[in-house]
């Protein structure tokens, strides 16, 4: 998998084995934060271990995906689909910035949300608009691709942050009125 998918020549990219991801999460330890941030997320190996750690803090009937939020950034084009898939199939709530964490140039920003707030449901994948509000929220300094229009969620549940709702719906003007 790594020999086919990793961009070793240009980005010196390697994938973190599951054993290393587990070890790093044990060394870093569990914290009580409900938010997780990772640059160079790759396919999501480290994030998956953190999600597992967060999930196991609760009884199965008490855990809700809305209890945790994951902020991820990834530059690689070949790894991004795997990262999105790994978030969506686990029913997570996350944002993924597809771009350079240092220069803040981005291709797209994705909002992954579990519409049902149920760990047995997959998350939907929404592409955020290239608006001033999104640029400000994610510190995007340059867009590298044209805006894509892809919204899987027909209705964003009220339990999510109002600003995220408006950004995902592209209602920038209502944010500016506040």
How would you characterize this protein structure?
The protein is an alpha/beta fold. The chain has one domain (2-177). The protein contains eight helices and six strands; from the N terminus they run αααβαβαβββαβαα. Strands 1, 2, 3, 4, 5 and 6 form a six-stranded mixed beta sheet that branches. Helix 4 links the parallel strand 1 (35-38) and strand 2 (69-74). Helix 3 packs across helix 4. The protein is globular and about 40 Å long. The termini are far apart.
Short structural summary:
With 178 residues, this protein is an alpha/beta fold. The protein has 8 helices and 6 strands.
Identify the notable features of this structure and list them briefly.
178 residues; six-stranded mixed beta sheet; 6 strands; alpha/beta
Q: Report the radius of gyration as a whole number of Å.
A: 16 Å
Number of helices: 8
Helix percent band: 25-40%
Uncertain ranges: 174-178
Portion in strands: 15-25%
The termini sit apart by 48 Å
Number of domains: 1
Number of strands: 6
Topology as H/E string?
HHHEHEHEEEHEHH
Q: Looking at the structure, what is the overall shape?
A: globular
Main sheet specs = 6 strands, mixed
Derived from helix and strand composition plus strand pairing, the structural class reads alpha/beta
Mean pLDDT score: 81
Could you give the topology of this structure?
Elements: H1 2-5, H2 8-11, H3 18-28, E1 35-38, H4 45-55, E2 69-74, H5 80-89, E3 94-99, E4 105-113, E5 124-127, H6 132-138, E6 142-143, H7 162-169, H8 172-177
Parallel strand pairs: 1-2, 2-3, 4-6
Antiparallel strand pairs: 3-4, 4-5
Helix pairs in contact: 3-4
